[in-house]
Amino acid sequence: MLIISRTITLPESELVERFLRADGPGGQHVNRTESAVELRFDVLNSPSLPDDIRARLLARRDRRLTGDGVLVIQARRFRDQARNRDDVRERLVEIIRGVLVPPKKRVATRPTRASKERRLVGKQQRGKIKQTRSRKPDLE
């Protein structure tokens, strides 16, 4: 059981783990052991997630999310499998907790008259600076 919040928990049956050979340091040992972990979580078909959280998770522009709505996370930071399993599960919890709070709605505002004038004055000053850089044609 993976605890996300007081109201959301993910059962082990919804998490699919696959173990891979990790690259990086470790000598010959790294060639024989499968210490990297790939965790797959089906966001689209998960009965444990409320609809609003599922929608926010699927709306994220995350390259780890497949077209089928499956979140794929890999962990190969550590040399042993148990630490990589813990790491990948913590990262899944962080991703889901990141969408628990709905984003604030943006309130449309208009620029003030003073800010418009400041912008125009700044543009005029910048234009004068650039004008002084140009060479005047020689009059003969």
TrEMBL record:
Residues 21-37 form the Prokaryotic-type class I peptide chain release factors domain. Its EC number is 3.1.1.29. Gene3D superfamilies: 3.30.160.20. Residues 105-140 are annotated as: Disordered. The keyword Hydrolase applies. Residues 125-134 have a biased composition (Basic residues). Belongs to the prokaryotic/mitochondrial release factor family. This is Alternative ribosome rescue aminoacyl-tRNA hydrolase ArfB. It comes from Rhodanobacter ginsengisoli.
